[in-house]
Amino acid sequence: MRRSGFPAWVIWAFAVLAGAPTWAQSPAWPSKPLKLVVPFPQGGTSDTMGRMIAEKLAVALKQPVVVENVSGGGGATGLLQALKEPADGYTLMQTGVGQNAIAHGLNPNIGYDSVKDFTHLTQVHSGPNVLVVNPNVPFKTFAELVVYGKANPGKLSYGYTHAASGHVAMELLKQSVSVCVANVKGGRDCTGLSVVGVPYKGGGPLMAALLEGQVPMAFVNQDAASPLVKAGKLRALAVTSLTRNSLFPDVPSISEQNVPGFMALSWSGISVSSKTPKPIADRLEAELVKIMMSPDVKQRLESKGFVVPEQSAASYAAFVEREMGRWSRVIKIAGLKPE
Length: 339
Description:
Helix content is 40%, strand content 19%. The protein is of the alpha/beta class.
């Protein structure tokens, strides 16, 4: 038998390399349809944002991007399911304020870490809640609401969906020691605001209750509030962004109204598992940033009162971490628990 002129270790190394899968040997990515998990039902703001991105990304990658709605657990159910999929770049997730910031304050054992378990690719939208009231309430401005609430402790109620951005926005307002109004002696009254929450199972029932006068006020997303305010069916008293919103140019922010720095935003973005190969994550980030900076997407978002945030994986990851810490503190003080 003829002996090879190569040492045994060289022959072994060639055998290992020949049998090992490598990035170069893998099929070009993407070679099949992708999936975007939207962790909420169809029809809401989150679903609308997700479907817009899926449509644009499909064109950019030349592969279909199928939206899969997996609701439950305030958004956590969908993310837990998506994280069980192979981390090969074919499963994307819509991340957001409820499932990636508020959820951690409600349940430390939620089953994922929004910092360690995700590669956050880019933020898609950011927008305020609007404090709206039924037109029949006895107050017409935010200042009058505060005066009424302080004069009638425990008698003022608000509607909410458990742990949604509007819910924690009201808890933040209740905790803001600088909710001040001028008292009869010309000084400042900065005592706490006492309001009673009334829970509703979803935005639809909450909005119906507001319109029917079953509950006097609530924080709701600005895109949902806008047509009802314009029709005179609801009155807008304040927005929760630091500055005024383009859909409500005549409505001051809460920060303008003696609660400096008050901010509570509804937001979402696109992420993948942190185990996704970096070249794939980098490609997805690049394509998503192009999509978000395209004139038609920016116009579509801004026409609905949304802000197009800074576009990069690094900026979105840092934003998620800040929001986690901020809302966890609010939820701890409020004593909120999972449903």
